[in-house]
Amino acid sequence: MQLFHSLLLLCLLLVTSAKYDPAKCEVCITFLTKFRATLDGLDNSIQSDHNKIDKELRKACKTTQPKDERFCWYIGATETSATGMTQLVTKPLAFHKPIEKICGDLYKKDSQICDLKYEKKVDLKTVNIKKLKVKELKKILEQHGQDCKGCTEKSEYVTKVEAIAASQGRTEL
Fold this sequence. Notes:
Blueprint: H1 2-17, H2 26-40, H3 44-47, H4 50-61, H5 66-75, H6 87-94, H7 99-109, H8 134-143, H9 154-167
Helix pairs in contact: 4-6, 6-7, 8-9
């Protein structure tokens, strides 16, 4: 029985030791910063009414990129969301609470919100294509609407990506 209590205490310590770090909550902070900027351009009656902010948030979530859409899904601002935590965003926005603190409150409710990261953009004009991993090469091909069916070697992927880089103005390969 004492072992059970010790394990329970250890689990509680591990859960509570996970602290919020604004630097690791990239998607939340970026999306809410952009959203607040759109609110600043609207009427003051909208900026101070959390119900109107909720409507604007749901409207903004309909036209987002994939990681932002996942964030909207986590907070319940999409039609397919299973949760409804939008009030944790809209009420603090109505009171002009700092974005970092809003994301910190969301992190306390659901830590997955801060696990979202934007994909790194690869600059094909400067990157050494031969040093990229096959997974990164496949992602570049996918981003440019191409695939490499039948490719089995890394060199085949490199050749395809180099062709894309050349079409974008890269001179030396």
